[in-house]
Amino acid sequence: MLDQQISRRSFLKVTTVAGTGMLVGCSFQTLPNVSSSSAESRDLGLFIQISKDNKIKIISPTSEMGQGTHTAHAMIIADELEANWEDISVVTTSLIDSEYKTNSSIGVATGGNNGIKLWWQRLAEIGAGTRELLVEAGAREMRVELEKCEAKNGYVLHRSSGQKVSYGQLAESASKLKPSSSPILKSKSHWQYIGKAMPRLDIPSKINGSATYGADVRLPDMVYAAVKLSPFFGGEIKTYDATAALALKGVEAVIPIPHGISVVAESTWHAQKGIDVLEVEFQGGRTHDFDSPKLDQHFNKSLNKLGKAELPGQNSIDLEYDIQFLSHAALEPMNCTADVTKTSCEIWGPFQAQSKALETIKKLTEFGQDQIKIHTTYVGGGFGGRFRLWADDFIEQAVTLSKNLGKPVQVMWSREEDIKHDYYHPASKSRFQISFDDNGMPSRWENQHATGSQWVQNSSVLKWLDFNPLAYSSTAHAGFLNAVSSVFDPKREPHYDIEGVNFQQTVVGLDIPLGWWRSFMFQNTFFLESAIDESAYFASQDPFEYRMKLLRNKPRFQKVLACAADKANWGSPLPEGHGRGISICNFAGSICAEVAEVSLDKRDKLIVHRVDCAVDVGKYVNPDTLKAQVEGCVVWGISIVKAEEITFENGRVQQSNYDDYKIAKMKDTPLINVEIIKSEGGPYGGDAGLPPTPPAITNAIYAATGKRIRKLPIGKQTLV
Q: Does the predicted model carry a pTM greater than 0.85?
């Protein structure tokens, strides 16, 4: 049953909780150490707490943003621990210590599917090591041989006599034992939870309203703040008149903040009313003469510097594609509650990058790490939007105001501030010149790519090199820079076998805050899969068969593509006016293929009838959560295709709420089928569901109408 041994120089730290239970953490920095019962819990990287009533609390290193990571972490630990599922709860760590770091570059943070990719093995080892301690303690308690005992469903069982002792009864004695430096993991065949559809632990509290989000935090004597920021990125206050705001009932103060101003009141409602009547004039900023048409010219100028290949003869095509700026538009706006005293600082909120928040607080308060505590609530949508790359502005505002006022302050952004001051997914433009051999297959593939880059924007070295490593993701790239890019992520190897590839990229410098976004380089799949589809039709070949030929050296990709086509009944007759489109992507090692079926309604507006998906993410924890993640990606992909877009006029973002930043609604949601292909790689992650969706839909539009969509969103473009 136990057949996978882990060898480590160091593993667990264990201590008691004031004589009432057991704390289990891990340290990979030092030799094995069993702490005494007087040890401070802050000295441990704590992942499991077992109390005398047999309740098990798992302290997760990641935020729960609706992606189901807390449940997955519980499944991994519970499987190795042999715990009773009904006894388990999960919270996010409030300690920003080294043991909780996802990796050395981002510290304690959640994103990029790393909550599973980088934590599965570590958490499994912690569960296994804890189980071994409990079994040893159980054997001693029952005065029986260790070899005849096993852990099962929250108890240590003596097989021959049937005696058993609960984990809760053993917690204190187990905490005094020396932990193993090489715990043995269970074999896959004996997993109870991993790989099975388990109910999400966070769902019941979200349904009954007891879940705590940032807006639910309440502290004694707390006040509430609303903010108004400069409409120009980087702008500051020139003048303001607080008279009208201070005259309103409930308003207590008007206080300038970096790049804006705040109104503090007895409730969020009163604070927002104060903001509405506040007279303020801004100055400065970096984008006064910026608008969307000028942005388009800027991209064209950058591409023109790269040049275009002149391909001889008639057997070639010349293509150009555009992707828009996008907001995260998460349901929960930015917010933070801070309580700063003379000796400490605590904050509460929907955080995605806790280590970065810690550094921000250190600078603002000059406190040491032991004086700071970060409480992460449930997050109402992250998608990378809470990684604030220029500054942790909403955290900075709450901490600064609490420090100045000497009381707890909850800062809550309005929807308008949230959309107008997001860290946007960058726009991109890509050109292709493709020539074909006598069999209709590409013989020369020239591709020029221009994009804004959140990574380059924050790196002086990459700016100087004009090099965006992520630009190579999901392209048909080749050459020296491909090799350089692969240093950053070896999984970016091109999947299509295409002759004569020449990929060039340039970074478009932008004075717009750019940030990480779900499936961060999804636009490259739109560019590549659109060009592949156009190539197939130019060669008068079936788009599915054409791709299968280009994937002849990638059987894993062929399997996924064939599965999606089979589930969609590719090639079968469709109703008049309907069309199917197909696409495939490689996102950080995960493969997803999709087939979309579309038509137009009586007003010639797009209807997406169904999307069939096949996904290979390697190993996965919870298939139900994986399917939900892919389904969510598909809906978001539909939203990107139809209407989502951030535009600029006179240096200002034009969108401000869901009435003009239009996201997909229930009526836009088609039948979505997700087939999970089992494989042993990875784990890689489920965000691969987004990149294939836009090209599958636009390719289907062409199949149905003969109209190619090369610029997103469709918006007011005609489809006939």
A: yes
